[in-house]
Amino acid sequence: MKKITFLFILILFSIASIGQNLQLHYDFTDANSKNAEDRDYMTATFEMFKPDKAGSTFWFIDLDFNGPHHEPNLAYLEISRDLKLWEFPLAIHGEYNGGFMYHRMNYGAHFSNILILGPSAAFELGNVSLGTYAGYRYDDYSREGIDFQWTGTWFSIIWEERITLTGFIDIWSQDDDYDGKGKKAVIITEPQIWYNFNKTFALGGEVEVSHNFIFGSKKIEVFPTIGAKVEF
C-alpha cells in the first residue's frame, strides 16, 4: 500500500510539472462544527489552466493528508473543457468531477461521478478576469430528478502584481440524502488571497464557506486555511 501511495504521488508530481501551480494548504479545524472536528491536516492541490485556439482546459486534483499516519486518504479530481470555435461570446462547457476516500475507521468510499454540460462565458471587468457557466448536472446516484449548477470564477492581480485575488462560487441542486427525499441547494465558495514574493512563489490561503455541503450540516460552515503556492 505504501508503494502504491508513493507511486501515485510521484505520478501527480510529474503531471504537475507541466501544469500551472502546486498549492499546499493547512486546513484549520472548527471546534464549533461537529461535522468537521478533524480538519487539522494538509491538503495538496495540483492545478492547471491552459487556453488555446479552440477554447481552454482546466483541471485540479486535491489530496487530503488525513490518514492515521498523515498519509493521503482522499483524492478528488475536476477536469473541464470550454470549446469555442466561433466568434459568438458563449462557449460550450463540459466538466467531470469524481474521486474517492479512505476513512480512518478502515472503510473506503467513492464520490459520485458528476458530469456538467452547458454554456459558458469569459470576460474582463477592469483588471478582473471573470468566468461563468451554467448547465445540466448529471449525478449517477441521483434519484429525485434533474439537477443544475451555476459557477462563477474570478482572478485579479493588484498592488504592483504583489497580491493575487482569485476564487469561485458554485451553486447546485442535488438529492437531499440527509432528509431522505426531495432536493436541496448546495452553495460553496472559496476566495483565495496570495502575496507574490516573485513570479514563482507565494504565501496566502483561502476561506471555504459552504451551506449544505458538509454532510449532516444545515448551517453555514466556514473553514480557513493558510498555504504556499509554487507556479510552474
Outline of the structure:
With 232 residues, this protein is mostly beta strands. The protein is built from 1 helix and 14 strands.
How many strands, which pairing sense, and closed or not: the largest β-sheet? 14 strands, antiparallel
Uncertain regions spanning at least 5 consecutive residues: 1-19
* Number of domains as seen in the coordinates: 1
The rounded distance between the terminal residues' Cα atoms is: 30 Å
Task: Output the radius of gyration.
Answer: 18 Å
The total of beta strands comes to 14
- What's the quaternary structure here? single chain
Q: Helical segment tally?
A: 1
Q: State the CATH architecture.
A: Beta Barrel
| Overall pLDDT score | 88
The CATH class assignment is Mainly Beta
